Amino acid sequence: MGRRLGVMGGTFDPIHWGHLEAAFAAEGALKLQRLLLVTSRVPPHREAPNASSYHRFAMVALAVAGRKGWRAADLELRLDAESYTADTLRMFHDRGYAPNELFFILGADAFADISKWKDFPRVLDLAHFVVVSRPGFPVDDIPHRLPLLAERMVKPPFDAATHLDAMIMLLDSPTSDVSATQVRDRRSRDESIAGLVPDGVKMHIEQHGL
After folding, report:
1. Nearest partner of 42 among 14, 1, 79, judged by Cα
2. Buried b (16+ CB within 10 A) or exposed e, 137-171
3. Among 18, 123, 151, 199, whose Cα sits 20 to 30 Å from the Cα of 57?
4. Distance of CA 99 to the CA centre of its chain
5. How far is residue 209's CA from residue 201's CA, in Å, rounded to a whole number?
6. Counting Cβ atoms within 10 Å, is residue 77 exposed (0-12), middle (13-18) or buried (19+)?
7. What is the spatial distance between Cα 180 and Cα 169, in angstroms, rounded to a whole number?
8. Tens of pLDDT along 170-201?
């Protein structure tokens, strides 16, 4: 079995159980050997994050602590530029990874907007894209939303060794109905965020008044 590196990028403002459950699902379905969670510096498609880069990265580090093979990555935070998935995936190519050794994990809601991403459609050749169901966005809808990409889509069981070309892997796995916006809204109303984020992340948010 070749190298299998899972990569999940995001603003993580804050990281929550929806992110982590999507990563768990991909790790199990694809037997990923390592999983990097890459915190975006400046997300190009949305407003600036509420929390600083320092706090967002710290929360990711707390969320992955103790999980074998998982690591918080600051690749994008080191750059003095906007964060684009295509550029980040090319960084892994520069480190010797082939596209079929990279598994970029994201929710079906985010993938529905893939045509707006930098370097679309070439970005889809840079890694396997592992698309995980999100509440209100089942992966079964993706071929209908993006019919021109349907022939590249595959469903479990995945035998990644047979997919030498980068594929779009549709993974129908339940993830919690939680969003970073929901967590921030609850904090702004001084309501509990217990169960929405890992305990270590909750403590960090409360200790720093985020």
Report:
1. 79
2. bebeebbeebeebeebbbeeebebeeeeebbbbbb
3. 123
4. 17
5. 12
6. middle
7. 25
8. 999 999 999 999 999 999 999 999 999 999 99
